[in-house]
Amino acid sequence: MKKLFLGLISILLVSGCAGLPFDLPFFDGGGPNVTELGPDIIVIQGISIIPNPPLRPEDQFSVYFEVKNQDDIEPISGVSYELYDTGLCVWQPGGYYTSKFGSWSEGFAPLETKLVEWVFKAPSLEDIAHLRTTCPIKFKVNYSYTAKSQIDVSVINENRLKNLQRAGEDVIYEPNLNVGRGPIKIYFDFGNTLPIKESSSLSVYLKVEDKGNGLLGQIENDSFSLETDSTNFIFSDFMPEYFTCTGNICKNNNSIPLINKETFEIRFVLDTPPEDMEKTYYITAKLNYTYDVIGEANVAIEPR
Amino acid sequence: MKNLILLSILLIALTSLCAYFPLEIPQIPSSYQQQIGVNRVVTESPDVFFSIEPTSSEITSGRDIQILFEIRNKQMYDLNDVFLDAYDHPCFSSGTFSENIGTIKGNRTIITTWKLKSETDLFMDKNCRIKFSLNYTANYSYFQDIAVLSDSEYYQRELAGTLKDIPIQSSSSISPLGISIEFSEDQPLLGKDNYYMYINYFNTGNGFITVNEGDITLKTPTNINIVQADGKYCGGDYKQIDANTYQLNKSLIFLKGKANPSTCNFTTSDVSTIDIKSLSLITNYKYLLDNSILVRVKK
């Protein structure tokens, strides 16, 4: 009875601690207020095989799937598809798509769905040596997209800060980080407490994460940029092996790998401009990438 | 069994502390700064009512927002060099960001409208806090009677219990700046004696006050004489301009609404019976009130 009671209490204890908001990107405690749009733009959905497997050797079958643009605002262009592995099954011309690869030149309207059908022929009995086998039908849909993130920074005049502190006010600024749509997310954080004093140095940390279901191996050279909204708010220190910064603009001069779907922490230092009172500045990061969404259908072939 | 039940109640109570705790603890609204209606924000000080009201709290990017300002001088004296400034206007790149209003006469209201255009280059909705400041200069006057009695008059009244019957008044204009004077002994004061006067400075408003060197003029009556010690008046806080006029010799620094008081050593003059005269402190101060509105700019 006692054990039952203690067990019940343990369950209650565990359930009480669930759902804490530990969703900050990569720093412990504090950090910006993050508003993040969904990760997936182009998705593969509704994969189906007709007729239903298992199939007999030399049967003809079709694989259908839908490609959907989940963005309800932006159209997407540059979407292409490719069938890259069929196992022992053989792709046949005659489906709705007459090629193993191609692209939709007209692009995808917001929330538009397009159907793909490929026809295949199952291997012969000899090919499978009278043994049960599976054809892995593997395909990918790729598209080009730009990841965008923006964070605000409050820069304060030194005397204004003193006056606020002398008035007994808590001078705290919680930056707002807007992380745009798409599987690739760019997160920011700061090494200093905000608001930051005028004419001082602000450490900025950046990390890129792949939160989608597809693949991005690396950030290509010259595809990642960082910019402040003022030519007076300039980069004074950066990682020269990966970035070149001039004034308020930085661009990557080397490819940056994603290991376990994320980059290392990228550090920059910004020099804050002089201010009369307080001013909100924005730092915007943009990353152009091509993302592969993978689809797979396993078709079982049974010998007669 | 009883202990086990008690223990379980305690553990459940502890567990409830782990439940989703709101990150922002609601703040108790200040008595001077409040949110009225959906969009209107109001800041008040003893002499000024300042309200900001945007036409909408949400606009589509690229469109204009109109903001209505109401500035009311609550007192009978003028507010000068009134300057309205949007010192931080993220997401709004063009439009009116400052206005020189000049003088607002006593008990008058100024209403002005600004149009701000929101930026177009947005990739998602953005919450933008526009911060405004209202700067002005004004005068503050403070008068304090100083009653000096001869020895005979003082002891005679003390015996008769009429010392407190002497009318000693102080008056001041209403402003966010407050000044009070205290004496090392209760008034009335004895003639030919030595006393201390403590001048206290307060900021009773919700904004930031600036009182710089030379901004306070202290005029002492002829029945007292401020004593110079080590070449300084009032510990160096004031400098002498002429026989009975002194000026503030430093900038006042207000910490949580209070500045460091000035201590002035003075002697009372030799009077025949009773001499009541008035000390004045006239102050020119700059005041800054600020407030902000939050506008959501939609993509």
How is this structure best summarized?
The complex is a heterodimer of chains A (304) and B (299). Chain A has 304 residues and is mainly β.
Structure description:
The complex is a heterodimer of chains A (304) and B (299). With 304 residues, chain A is mainly β. Chain A has 2 domains: 33-38 and 146-289, Immunoglobulin-like; 42-144 and 292-301, Immunoglobulins (Immunoglobulin-like). Chain A has helices at residues 2-16, 158-166, and strands spanning 33-36, 42-50, 60-69, 79-85, 90-92, 101-104, 113-121, 133-156, 176-179, 184-190, 196-197, 201-210, 218-219, 224-228, 234-237, 243-246, 249-252, 256-257, 266-271, 278-301. In chain A, strands 1, 4, 6, 8, 9, 11, 14, 16, 17 and 20 form a 10-stranded mixed sheet that branches. A 4-stranded antiparallel sheet of chain A has the order 2-3-7-5, with no helix packed on it. The longest helix of chain A is centred in the first third of the chain and has 15 residues, at 2-16. The radius of gyration of chain A is 26 Å and the shape is elongated. The N and C termini of chain A lie far apart (59 Å). The model of chain A is unreliable at 11-29 (pLDDT under 50). Chain B has 299 residues and is mainly beta. Chain B folds into 2 domains: 29-138 and 288-298, Immunoglobulin-like (Sandwich); 139-286, Immunoglobulin-like, CATH 2.60.40.290. Chain B has 2 helices and 24 strands. In chain B, the strands form 4 sheets. In chain B, strands 4, 6, 8, 10, 11, 13, 15, 16, 20, 21 and 24 form an 11-stranded mixed sheet that branches. In chain B, strands 1-2-3-5-9-7 form a 6-stranded antiparallel sheet, with no helix packed on it. In chain B, strands 12, 14, 17, 22 and 23 form a 5-stranded antiparallel sheet that branches. In chain B, a hairpin with a 2-residue loop joins strand 20 (238-242) and strand 21. Chain B is elongated and about 85 Å long. At the A-B interface, helix 1, strand 8 and strand 20 of A face helix 1, strand 6, strand 10 and strand 22 of B.
